[in-house]
Design brief:
The chain is mainly alpha-helical. About 55% of the residues lie in helices and about 10% in strands. Helix 2 crosses helix 4 and helix 3 runs antiparallel to helix 4. The longest helix has about 70 residues.
Length: about 250
């Protein structure tokens, strides 16, 4: 048995899947000359924004695709455990007990008014050992394949998590940009309308020019168009963020 055991290419459980949460190595071009530092899966924490972190955590928890990926990783890990277990001896034991009473009818005993009988007890203990020797490396290959499946699914889940977090962070920045653009466009429209009113007042007083009023009117229309575009972009950003968080846009 010891000689046959040496034929195995890989001891059971010797290959362990890598943890995708240990860190991501960014390309050297992204870093300074000091070398690339591993990127944490929770990279957004470095931004020190509780609001952004809350949005990202909410989105990660509510995403059904991430939940399904997590279950697939657990399923693959369970299959890996079962694959490793196939290379180890399986021991099973059984215990049974029986008690038997026999009555000998028709065999009277002198001096006895009853029926002759006897009672016996029996205990049985069984132990089975099943062990499949991996002579040709089939079980070891299956284990390596299961490890690769766990690693692949783990990296897919980590990549999806990073991608979703990045999308939420980008949507949050777009929301801030949309609010600021809307504010600036509102102020620009108010200024254009003020200039328009001044030009019309000067024209009505006889000191203004008609072309100045027309130019002021054009600036007001342009400012209104810019404001409408900023409002549409802001509304689209709200809808985008709501879809990433998995809740209605009206509650954002």
């Amino acid at each position: 048995a010891a000689a046959l055991w040496a034929c195995q290419s890989t001891p059971p459980g010797a290959v362990q899947p890598k943890d995708p949460g240990e860190g991501i190595q960014p390309p050297p071009a992204w870093s300074q000359s000091g070398g690339a530092a591993p990127l944490s899966l929770n990279y957004w924490e470095a931004l020190n924004s509780p609001t952004l972190e809350g949005l990202i955590q909410e989105g990660l928890a509510a995403n059904p695709s991430l939940a399904a990926m997590g279950l697939r990783v657990e399923q693959a890990a369970a299959y890996l455990d079962a694959t490793i277990g196939q290379q180890s001896p399986a021991v099973s034991a059984s215990l049974s007990a029986a008690r038997r009473r026999v009555n000998y009818v028709g065999l009277p005993v002198p001096g006895s008014s009853g029926v002759l009988s006897s009672t016996s007890s029996q205990l049985s203990l069984g132990v089975d050992v099943v062990w499949e020797l991996d002579l040709w490396g089939r079980l070891a290959s299956a284990e390596r394949g299961a490890v690769a499946d766990v690693e692949a699914l783990g990296y897919d889940a980590a990549a999806a998590r990073i991608s979703l977090a990045g999308q939420i962070a980008k949507a949050a920045m777009t929301l801030v940009e949309g609010d600021e653009s809307t504010r600036l466009a509102t102020e620009a429209l108010a200024l254009a309308e003020q200039i328009q009113a001044n030009e019309r007042r000067l024209l009505s007083g006889g000191s203004g020019r008609a072309e100045s009023v027309l130019a002021a009117d054009a600036r007001v229309q342009s400012a209104k168009a810019i404001l409408a575009g900023a409002q549409r972009a802001s509304a689209a950003a709200v809808n985008r963020m709501a879809s990433l968080l998995g809740r209605p846009a009206g509650t954002l």
